Amino acid sequence: MLKLDLNYLQDFLSMAEIEAMEPLLLSSRQTLENKTGPGAEYLGWLDLPVNYDRAEFAAVKEASAAINEQSDVLIVCGIGGSYLGARAVIEALTDPFSALKSSGKRQHPLVLYAGHQLSGSYLKNLLAALEDRRVSVNMISKSGTTTEPAIAFRVLEQWMRERYGAEGARKRIYATTDRQRGALKQLADERGYQTFVVPDDIGGRYSVLTAVGLLPIAVAGISLDELMAGAAAARDRYAGQELRQNDCDLYAVVRNILQKRGYTTEILVSYEPGLQYFSEWWKQLYGESEGKDGRGLFPASMSFTTDLHSLGQYVQDGRRILMETVLQVETAQEDIVIQSSAEDQDGLNYLAGKTMSEINRMALYGTAMAHVAGGVPVQLLKLSELSAFVLGELIYFFQKACAVSGYLNAVNPFNQPGVESYKRNMYALLGKPGFESERLKLEKRLSAEGSDLR
Ligand code: PA5
Description:
46% of the residues lie in helices and 13% in strands. It has 454 residues and is an alpha/beta fold. Helix 15 (420-430) crosses helix 16. The radius of gyration is 23 Å and the shape is globular. The model has no long low-confidence stretch (mean pLDDT 95). It binds 5-phosphoarabinonic acid. The site of 5-phosphoarabinonic acid has 14 residues, from loops. Residues 79-82, 141-143, 146, 149, 203-205, 288, 416 line the site of 5-phosphoarabinonic acid.
């Protein structure tokens, strides 16, 4: 269960100000739900929790069972929306130290990642670590042409074919991509790899509840049924109701009002390290959806209390452009009780009998109050626990709030034209056919390297 707590916003906002936004909010909601806004062809995620392809869902579960049977490791090869959602859910719900367990002691394959950067060292080290492991690969790319995963897949596929032979590799490589278009679909069909579909009407960063996220998540041993049930519950809960009762709408409105007041960076904070990749997923969702036409909150993330010892000073006392959204997990998955010590040399006996989650909770409240006093608006998003169901709710909550926020800000939340700029330059510099004229310009710039401002 999720609950938005606006208690700490009292010094910054009133309910009357929030409710004054209701007409604008309702019009953004209608634009979204009636599918009349820009990007409306990418709204398949809105009803996905109840309207998903049952046959594909069953095929994902079957493939996950086969991967479980024949692998110690699944490599997920993808970038952006093609890996962040799966990684967010897997890292939130699985033991972070399971890599240290021998394969025999692990119940599910270890999920590792490739194709999310261009580091040769990373890929070489990964391949070396796989030497005595049984491996499967899930290549994920909606377009089927994204450079980073395509390069990693070329290397991984060759490695798999050398190791298992063409037929062995065929049984261990899975491709998640467009239903019919793109280089990956063509290659997968030629080689006979099993394929899963990224639906046409769902963009990368909204795709975690399709086969894109579901196959790796299932391989990690997480219940897909619970995840989808959580998302479906959220879909129902945030479908109607007046603004006061609808946390998803409230979140969208609050961050938009604060943005207009100059709080231009939103930090997503968590006190559970397992949520670090959830924040990465959130940053992509909001960064790519809202950051365009010179608009949008800058989405940042911090892991507390770790970052209180690095960025805490800035949050407390630096430029007053920060607002904070805290993910508060109310019931920890695991806990430890602090024992009393006869000598009390560390002076910690005052904590004896308390659990670490109690201490963590007091750190959260103490920090929230300190930050409010320092001029940082704070809202808490309470998660009753970390479970597949709650993560399903949370995914849907943030997706819908993001779309509504985008429309409130008058941008198209479903495109990402800005992502193309670096790609064009990189293609030109690498000599990709079709980019010759850009190449000449960029090479001039490159040859001037070394003649810096001084
Ligand atoms: O949200 C998006 O559309 C992007 O972040 C994509 O997920 C990312 O660029 C990867 O694209 P693709 O799946 O086509 O390889």
